[in-house]
Write a structure and sequence with these properties.
Elements lengths: L14 E2 L15 H28 L6 H27 L8 H20 L5 H27 L12 H16 L3 H8 L4 H29 L9 H9 L6 H7 L17 H10 L20 E2 L1
Helix pairs in contact: 1-2, 1-3, 1-4, 1-7, 2-5, 2-6, 4-5, 4-7, 5-10
Length: 305
């Protein structure tokens, strides 16, 4: 009797090679404020991705479904690559040389490692319960990133030509994979015994803090930039939104509370899932054809699977 074929996950780990060497300091149409607002992705996402990865690693021992286990491994792979490429972009832009940025990121990583070890040493059923609580915060983070990613593929809200090509490739690839795996953490959470109350409690604290936190971080980057030295301008932000140079945080904020609905499921979040899937299909190991029209926004990088 032949061995059963390994279960194939719905997720794919891709390893794009994106050269940021030609990316300028202000890579959103020379717009410093919009650039700094998005620079938060490059130094903030890696620590966040490692946090999400550890929540899934803690949950691995409780997975009894082969497909879900395969998807957990693929999710970890995707998030690992996301972290690495955003760190490379941050290094190119010298973001880790800004005051406090690297110390804060390093402190977050140390706190995460301490928490992981502490949870992993707990006896059952406390370990499982702590894992569910950690995973509930991952769900909230993935909800925000899915909303952001959905805007990336909304051409009525984001002008792809306003971003330097390599950064555009990085953000679109990452956004597409966020939409691709947005359902997995929620399915895992339910699979290991997660409940509504545990899911909702972090959101009551996190949702009100998300947008103000991003504004504060953007202001900080503006103030420590020796070429700018001024805080965020609300008027400039609204102009950038109208010009489609920056995501509409107010629109994202209006959709965040959907997460608190008892019957919420992330499969209902994305309006541009088809565009994201088509994009991922277009980068399957290929480079941009020279004849491809510019408005097609096809990537200029090769992807290893």
């Amino acid at each position: 009797m032949s061995a059963a074929a390994p279960t194939k996950p719905r997720l794919t780990v891709r390893r794009p090679v994106i050269d940021q060497s030609a990316t300028p300091k202000y890579w959103v149409l020379g717009d410093p404020q919009s650039t700094h607002a998005l620079n938060i992705l490059h130094f903030g996402i890696p620590a966040g991705e490692r946090y999400f990865i550890d929540s899934v690693r803690l949950a691995m021992r409780y997975i009894t479904d082969d497909r879900l286990r395969a998807e957990a491994k693929a999710f970890v792979g995707q998030e690992t690559v996301h972290a690495r490429l955003h760190e490379q972009a941050a290094e190119h832009l010298d973001l880790f040389d800004q005051p406090l940025v690297k110390p804060i990121v390093d402190a977050a990583d140390r706190a995460r490692l301490r928490l992981y070890k502490r949870v992993d040493r707990l006896p059952e059923p406390y370990r499982r319960r702590a894992t569910i609580m950690w995973l509930s915060t991952t769900l909230l983070g993935e909800h925000f990133t899915a909303l952001f990613a959905d805007q990336v593929f909304d051409e009525a809200k984001v002008d792809q030509d306003s971003v330097a090509p390599a950064m555009r490739d990085l953000i679109r690839w990452h956004a597409a994979e966020e939409l691709e795996h947005r359902v997995f953490p929620y399915d895992l959470y339910l699979h290991i015994g997660g409940d509504y109350v545990t899911r909702a409690v972090p959101a009551l604290v996190g949702i009100p803090a998300m947008i103000p936190g991003l504004v504060m971080l953007t202001s900080y980057l503006m103030l420590v930039d020796p070429d700018i030295r001024r805080p965020v301008s609300a008027r400039h932000y609204m102009r950038a939104v109208r010009a489609r140079r920056t995501p509409n945080l107010l629109d994202i904020a209006a959709q965040l509370p959907v997460y608190l609905r008892p019957h919420h499921h992330p499969r209902h979040v994305a309006k541009h899932d088809a565009e994201a899937r088509a994009y991922l299909q277009s980068i399957r190991g290929n480079v941009t054809p020279r004849s491809a029209p510019r408005r097609a926004h096809q990537p200029s990088f090769k992807v290893a699977h």
